[in-house]
Amino acid sequence: MDRRQFSLSLACLLAMPLAGARAQPASPETGTSLLDGLGLPVLEVTVSPEGIDAPAEIAAGPVLLIAHNETDGGMTVDLTQLPEGVTVDDYLTIADSEDGSIPGWAADLVLAGYASTPPMGGSSIVLNLAAGTWTLIADGDAELAETSVSVTVTGEAPADAGIVADVELEYGEYAFQLPATVPAGPKIWHVTNIHTVPHHAIVFPVDRLYTAEEAQSGAMAAFSGTPVANGFSIETSVVGPPTELSVITAGQEFWVEVDLTPGFYVALCFVADPGTSMPHAMQGMIAPFEVTED
Questions:
Q1: Which of 56, 77, 33 is nearest to 150 (CA)?
Q2: Which fold has domain 7-154?
Q3: Which of 40, 89, 108, 253 has the smallest count of CB within 10 Å of its CB?
Q4: What was the pLDDT predicted at 234?
Q5: What is the rounded CA–CA span in Å between residue 194 and residue 171?
């Protein structure tokens, strides 16, 4: 799994055998995504060893962030507004916590989302940006001469983004709101965070349809080191690479293309509240669901 902000809460997962699986970006390579056909303003960003090349200004509202990674390491391109007194270096050190804790200042962080890219690859995501000064931060496995640039977002975002999504996923109060059945194949997912703290979703393909209680018991057992017999286990129940859906903070939303094959899945949130280290999955932020053919 790629190193990025808030991924420190996945440290325990990294220590477990996961059949070599890596979290996959939800959106495919740029130029092939359903998002490209939405006709939105484009914020095209290129990350290379020299740093970040990006426009200095873009209009408020839904924006198609297209990220190109020209480094030999996995990389995320994040759009953030940092709290007063917090530096980019502070932000980048979140993932270095040894105990999985999130610093208290993260309660005032605004994170609109990020595009997660493989080495020498790309991905895209639609973010809904409010007017103001934002910081583009590149975070990943490769060394960069410069890790951030500023982007000014101008004007007023429309009240209605006007984007029709195939699947609605809501990050709620330590709970996901997601249909029990979603369609297979490339689909546009609309993800919103209506809670007061950051959330994300890691979507695991699994060998059967688990209940939320089974998945929570199995996740808690994994963190405690005591497996549950015949229950959910990240080590034995997961049958393929997980898909990552971006961390966003309160009030943010994004649209992303997700391509899932028919089968059973479970979504878990491994982000912790600012100032704590307890992953939200331990508080029940888990959603089993089935993917079926249209």
A1: 56
A2: Immunoglobulin-like (2.60.40)
A3: 89
A4: 82
A5: 6
